[in-house]
Amino acid sequence: MAARELRVLAQGLSFLEAPRWHEDRLWASDFYTHRVLRFTPDGTAETVVEVPGQPSGLGWLPDGRLLVVSMRDRRLLRLEPEGLTLHADLHHLASWHLNDLVVDVQGRAYVGNFGFDLMAAADPAPANLVRVDPDGTATVAAEHMLFPNGSVITPDGRTLIVAETIGQRLTAFDIAPDGSLANRRVWAAFGEPPTAPDFATAFTQVHVAPDGICLDAEGCVWFADAFGQRAVRVREGGEIVDEVSTGQLGCFACMLGGDDGTTLFLCCAPTFVEHEASANHRAQLLSCRVEVPHAGLP
Predict the structure, then answer these.
(1) Is residue 81 reached through a cis peptide bond, with omega within 30 degrees of 0 on the bond before it?
(2) 81 contact partners, CB below 8 Å, separation of at least 6
(3) What is the pLDDT of residues 193-207, one digit of tens each?
(4) Any idea which architecture 7-295 has in CATH?
(5) Which of 37, 69, 180, 237 shows the greatest Cβ crowding within 10 Å of its Cβ?
């Protein structure tokens, strides 16, 4: 595994998630300043839109309109010329804060949620993965997921891969023509799901925590290991073939992009704990070069 030089693109941020390479820029959500940001090549952050309910997952409809998760009120919003408007209210389908998403080429969004109050150290509970169709109709796509987080869709549009952060695994589904999911299976596992019912004990049983993910042209997944201060490249079946250390900073999301798709962007911070991250603004956007370019969605 090659040693790589990390470049600091931006710092002084609260907590970055959901990085996306779109229209020759890196986009991301900064949780605790409630902003969707777009970064210029020199790392300057431009505010695209403010999301009072705390932004997370980002994606685009086929006509180019932005979809953005509003975490705390469990709504999926759409950016119109006049501003944000409701795309879908997921309150009745999501048991806690909404999280990341991926949007397919038809404009269907697959949205995860925490499942439990992470910041209050509530007992872990499974969550639904929700599908939102282009007209805003929302249905449960998959049940009993352990903190469904970053998601990718393969270039042929036939497979969805979801990071289950608390489950220590990547889970794959076949995507039917109507957007429904079938053939649920473990794509890669890094340990067993925790068996303890209480928060404190369960979290001692999680050693690898896949958070944000992206896909490359060889079919490998890069995932941010939220408990491991690293980004990891893994093949289907679970073989780890590369990793990038982020030193003392936690790594919570990653995305391949740049002009040739071989820049790996890393969303890093000293902590994911809300009261610390929101107060200290020590998050950074890092990058390094890798060999295999981006593929698939997002």
Answers:
(1) no
(2) none
(3) 999 999 999 999 999
(4) 6 Propeller (2.120)
(5) 69
The mean pLDDT of the chain is: 97
* Phi, psi for residue 200 in degrees, rounded to 5: -60, -45
pLDDT at 160 over 80: yes
How many CB atoms sit inside 10 A of residue 12's CB? Answer: 10
pTM comes to 0.97
pLDDT of residue 4: 86
